[in-house]
Design goal:
The protein has helices at 2-7, 53-56, 80-98, 116-129, 139-146, 187-202, 208-218, 249-273, 277-286, 300-308, 321-329, 333-336; strands at 13-17, 21-26, 30-36, 39-42, 48-51, 66-69, 72-73, 76-77, 105-110, 133-138, 157-162, 167-173, 176-183, 204-205, 229-236, 241-248, 288-291, 312-314, 344-346. It folds into three domains: 2-142 and 321-346, ATPase, nucleotide binding domain (Nucleotidyltransferase, domain 5, 2-Layer Sandwich), CATH 3.30.420.40; 147-185 and 257-318, ATPase, nucleotide binding domain (Nucleotidyltransferase, domain 5, 2-Layer Sandwich), CATH 3.30.420; 187-256, ATPase, substrate binding domain, subdomain 4 (Actin, Chain A, domain 4). The strands form five sheets. Strands 3-2-1-9-10-19 form a six-stranded mixed β-sheet, sandwiched between helices. It has a five-stranded mixed β-sheet with strand order 13-12-11-17-18, with helices on both faces. The relative contact order is 0.15. The protein is built from twelve helices and 19 strands. Helices cover 39% and strands 27% of the residues. The protein has 347 residues and is of the alpha+beta class. The two termini are 27 Å apart.
Length: 347
């Protein structure tokens, strides 16, 4: 009864504070916010002008008095002040739409290899932004819970969470992470590789948004039955004028994305190499699940399956997996505050 009364005054929230996107889950309501992790501020005053989609449209095209900032790099906070402003925007939006009286408790997903200093920075930013208590859960555990893997069972579950800044691979059993591997490679690295390829091969300068569009439209990790073409517009750095050229999916796969995809596949292989024998046997039939925005790269499931010999399944909604996991953990906050569970921490 007391818990029901308290629910009228506060909304507990789950936050997937990602390098590329930030998602907010509100208890009993689901995901209520899904925005790019970008903040546009006025230079000099640092006044926030836009957050999320509106700010992302300003990347690479802002006037001198406005700067669009991505405060998260490789899954961790690179700009503490801007991250706090972004979190405040998220929490205030939730409070405003729900009209609850008390500050919310927050479950925040963090990369598996985050340091104690980085954990403290996340916690302090969330508290200053308006949360009254902060719990942390490692992203691979949150993703595994979010996609519905039976993490509490003694049998092995394996999750590969390919985010914007990091790829987290984890082997989970009995609600604990048996082994995990985190590499600071993800969707952003793919975009950077495409930008570098266009500049090195064609002397064509393109922005982050164009590189991301190329990745989405023709990017792949496995040979396609029918290769695709894409018209790219940018600036010729030799002649100093706008230029247009056509590229193929094969070129982007083999010359731009291959090294990045290989790093992701290698991290999966290293996790399997360190798996105990019995848990390895479980994976022969159950395989692994891919989550995160990077899992949407065409053919990456087939590439990993070919390299490991295991079944590879794509989550129904890879982009929402971590946020959904933080949401399911919200139901266990009272227990979590009294218990110490591997992969789930209160701070």
């Amino acid at each position: 009864m007391w818990n029901r009364i308290k629910s009228f005054f506060t909304n507990d929230i789950g936050i997937d504070l990602g390098t590329a996107n930030t998602l907010v889950y509100v208890k009993d309501r689901g995901i209520v916010m899904r925005e790019p992790s970008v903040v546009a501020v006025q230079t000099g005053t640092h006044r926030v002008l836009a957050v999320g989609k509106e700010a992302k449209r300003m990347l690479g095209s802002t006037p001198g008095n406005i700067v669009a900032i991505r405060p998260m790099k490789s899954g961790v906070i690179a700009d503490f002040d801007i991250t706090e402003k972004m979190l405040r925007h998220c929490i205030e939006n939730v409070q405003r739409t729900s009209r609850k009286l008390r500050k919310p408790r927050a479950v925040v997903a963090v990369p598996g290899d985050i340091t104690e200093v980085e954990k403290r920075a996340v916690k302090d930013s969330a508290i200053r932004a308006g949360a009254r208590e902060v719990f942390m859960i490692e992203e691979p555990m949150a993703a595994a819970i979010g996609v519905g893997l039976p993490v509490s069972e003694p049998d092995a579950s394996m999750i590969v969470d390919i985010g914007g800044g990091t790829t987290d691979v984890a082997l989970i059993s009995l609600a604990g992470i048996v082994y995990s591997k985190s590499v600071r490679v993800g969707g952003d690295e793919m975009d950077n590789a495409i930008m570098m390829h266009m500049r090195n091969r064609y002397n064509l300068l393109i922005g982050e948004r164009t590189a991301e569009e190329i990745k989405i439209q023709i990017g792949s990790a496995y040979k396609l039955e029918q290769e695709l073409k894409f018209e790219v517009k940018g600036r010729d750095v030799v002649r100093g004028r706008p230029a247009t050229l056509e590229i193929t999916s094969q070129e982007i796969r083999e010359e731009a994305l291959n090294d990045v995809v290989t790093k992701i596949v290698d991290s999966v292989s290293r996790c399997l190499e360190n798996a105990p024998g019995q848990l390895s046997a479980d994976l022969v039939d159950r395989g692994m699940v891919l989550a995160g925005g990077g899992a949407l790269l065409t053919g990456i499931d087939r590439r990993i399956s070919d390299m490991t010999g295991l079944p590879v399944h794509l989550a129904d909604d890879p982009l929402s997996a971590v946020a959904e996991g933080t949401g399911r953990v919200l139901d266990e906050l009272e227990w979590l505050s009294r218990a110490s569970v591997p992969g789930i921490r209160s701070r």
